[in-house]
Fold this protein.
Amino acid sequence: MLKQIKSDIYHLLHPKMAFFLTSVSKNDKPNVMTCAWATPVSEEPPVVIVCVSKESYTAELIKQTKEFVINIPTKKLLGALWICGKISGRDTDKFKRAGLKIIKAKKVKSPVIDGCVGHIECKVWKTVDAGECYAFFGNVISAYADEKYMRNGLWTKEAEIPLHLGGARIVYFR
Ligand SMILES: Cc1cc2nc3c(=O)[nH]c(=O)nc-3n(C[C@H](O)[C@H](O)[C@H](O)COP(=O)(O)O)c2cc1C
């Protein structure tokens, strides 16, 4: 029997990959938050959307500098993923708190997170007010992945990428 779903309707669309979304302020101060709401929307040109709460510091920064980086982690970074998803970078250095090392990105000022297996650097070309979130449409400027975990353009099961089911539940891509 099909049961009517009245709350957390979005859980029907999970699991979704949980990743680190990095951004930067006008004066080059970086931030990171955990994000799961993202999707490709165009292959040619390559465009992705990230959906970010209007209340987050990340939304403020992306609106300021119009860029972001998607950093895809493995199981090893699960602890950091929770930390970056629970506290705001407004008054905390989350990189330090979560023990994350940053590296310079190739084409944008937002940093890349060391130990992640895939990165998508984006410049925002359109922002849509989507209710409680902004949907930031990002033109993909550069994308690269660890060849140990991505073969022939596909993730291998060794990558063990965290997939968010909802709430505190994570499963792994295997
Ligand atoms: C697994 C997981 C997935 C999340 N996905 C999103 C998301 O897709 N969009 C969003 O706005 N917040 C999401 N969050 C919540 C943000 O990470 C959280 O509000 C964070 O503290 C914002 O940080 P900031 O204020 O430094 O930007 C998620 C949290 C977790 C733990």
About this structure: The longest helix spans residues 57-65. Residues 122 and 141 are 5 Å apart (CA to CA). Residues 18, 31, 33-37, 51-53, 56-58, 82, 85-90, 133, 164 surround flavin mononucleotide (CB under 6 Å).
